[in-house]
Write a structure and sequence with these properties.
The protein is an alpha/beta fold and 495 residues long. It is built from 15 helices and 16 strands. Strand 6 and strand 7 form a beta hairpin.
């Protein structure tokens, strides 16, 4: 284990307050950059380093948290902090005290790896290795049996889901009303199948525009007719619903509208529920990333306000753990349509492998998922702050969806297409998505791109922002004139 103080010349940190934390952060960064600390090297404990540097232990804890959030080190509860893989050689100044601003792509020799900054990828590798392995050991230790899986899902997992909803989402469903599904798309297709069976015709479903495109594909494949509903700064426009042809269901993302990021206020939620009761319409709440709220208090689920039994609540583990697990859940109120959904689940049979369900139940029961969420919330907040600081003050640009979730939406008011910006960004080695890809009706969304930051380290996100700003400068410079070009040049110069 490298002695940090020895490598720093034995000089204690002499700043005060936040400056002490910044000093520790800058020194560790510099040691990684110059090769003194290599990938996998262990760092001193927070207590030991605090004693060596002559600072409070809380200062070192804060420094390690920032370094972890920036992707320089990896900390795990009960284990030593280690230098993260892939960071040696990154350009950094020992005097730098703020977040890393310079992209490694600028000084790297050889090919630059492609970065996938499209939305939908969380920080899969952030979970503690011992927790992850313990969950799969629990799955391997489960007794073999000559039986089929319960179509509704493993009872233990359903019980843990119900308990977590009571703690975190403001409502505690009966375990018998929880169904395990093969991802959100399978849950939505299950609802369509149930509506079709219950109604005896093609169901018509209202969806947010722009909105969740994979969910739309799943519903149309299951035989639904979709109708787009405009979205404003408060989410789905409830006042637009009465003007639609009669619909059988409406799918909403009220906690963090996908992809624009708006939060539906309580008053609008109540109006939506009242409209649903009056029109006998089923409301499907897609609660896809409610765990990640970066500003303000967590928002209760729409289902927590539902006293009439009109809300079908959809949640899952794609954004909290790994989308490749393909495990979500539906929470059904009593009623004819929910009962039809339950019947459709039985008819389809189980879709999520039982070992996967055992592992997820273990992560919930032991608190491992809760600890993981605490870690990645902090990391995602660092990423959000970097995006805000890099884009703040650039005229003509607006960063949206930063109050929560794992992605940002960058829009502009100039006469330039998102397609051109996406293509230029891709040529720089970074993949982003055009906001237009989420439209139901062409032209319903402003020009913009969606940038996913959940699976990126802070240095990688810096590189992605460099590529995006460079692409915007090239695509929009002519449309907005020299002021934007200068501003974008300044934003890149800060990096």
């Amino acid at each position: 284990m490298v002695r940090i103080v020895d490598q720093m010349g034995g000089t204690p940190v002499d700043q005060s307050g936040a400056g002490k934390t910044a000093g520790v952060v800058a020194r560790v960064r510099a040691m990684v950059q110059d090769g003194t600390l290599a990938a996998g090297d262990a760092l001193p404990s927070t207590r030991a380093l605090a004693a060596e540097l002559g600072v409070a232990r809380g200062t070192v804890v804060s420094a390690y948290e920032q370094l972890d959030g920036e992707g320089w080190i990896r900390t795990r509860q009960g284990a030593v902090a280690r230098v993260a893989p892939g960071v040696p050689g990154m350009p950094v100044s020992a005097a730098t005290t703020g977040p890393v601003r310079r992209s490694p792509a600028r000084d790297a020799s050889g090919p630059v790896p492609l970065l996938d900054a499209r939305p939908g990828i969380p920080a899969v590798t952030a979970i503690a290795t011992r927790d992850w392995r313990a969950a799969w050991r629990a799955a391997a230790d489960a007794p073999l049996r000559n039986a089929l899986s319960d179509p509704a899902g493993l009872p233990e997992l359903r019980a843990q889901i119900a308990a977590q909803l009571g703690l975190r989402r403001g409502f505690a469903p009966d375990v018998s009303r929880v169904l395990v599904t093969g991802g959100t798309s399978e849950a939505l297709s299950l609802v369509v199948e149930a509506l079709r069976n219950h109604l005896g015709r093609t169901p018509r479903i209202a969806v947010e525009d722009p909105g969740y495109r994979s969910g739309r594909r799943a519903m149309t494949s299951a035989g639904a007719e979709l109708v787009g509903v405009p979205v404003d700064d408060d989410g789905l426009d409830v006042d637009a619903l009465p003007a639609l042809p009669p619909v059988d269901a409406v799918v909403v993302t009220p906690t963090h509208q996908y992809p624009l990021g708006s939060v539906m206020p309580v008053a609008r939620r109540q109006r939506l529920l009242s409209w649903a009761v009056d029109t006998a319409t089923t409301v499907v709440e897609d609660d896809y990333d409610s765990e990640f709220r970066h500003r303000g208090s967590p928002v209760p689920a729409l289902a927590a306000l539902d006293t009439a039994g009109v809300v079908l609540h959809v949640g899952g583990f794609s954004k909290t753990l790994d989308p490749r697990l393909r495990c979500s859940y539906l929470v059904l109120p009593p009623g004819a349509v929910p009962d039809a959904v339950a019947a459709a689940r039985v008819a389809r049979g189980p879709v999520v492998a039982e070992p996967v369900q055992v592992a997820l139940a273990h992560l919930l029961r032991t608190g491992a998922l809760r600890r993981h969420l605490g870690r990645v919330r902090r990391d995602y907040t660092h990423r959000r702050e970097l995006i805000a600081s890099r884009l703040d003050g650039v005229p003509g640009l607006e960063a949206r969806a930063l109050n929560g979730g794992l992605h940002a939406v960058v829009t502009w008011s100039a006469l330039a297409t998102a397609r051109a910006v996406v293509a230029r960004t891709a040529r720089a080695g970074v993949l982003v998505s055009a906001l237009a890809e989420y439209e139901v009706a062409p032209g319903s969304a402003p020009d913009g791109v969606v940038l996913g930051y959940g699976g990126l380290t802070l240095p990688e996100l810096d590189r992605a922002l460099d590529a995006l700003l460079g692409a915007l400068g090239g695509a929009l410079g002519g449309a907005l004139g020299g002021s934007l070009g200068g501003a974008l040049g300044g934003a890149l110069g800060q990096a």
